[in-house]
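Notes to self, Transcription antiterminator BglG:
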Amino acid sequence: ERIAIFIGLQYQRKISPAEIMFLAINIERVRKEH
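result:
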């Protein structure tokens, strides 16, 4: 799935908790729309 691939790429580099929260919010938003 595209989202999973995107998250995988994010985890290959150092990410901040703020970025994790931002991704989580966006994923929840997409799930609600679909």
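- The mean pLDDT is 81.
- The chain has two helices and no strands.
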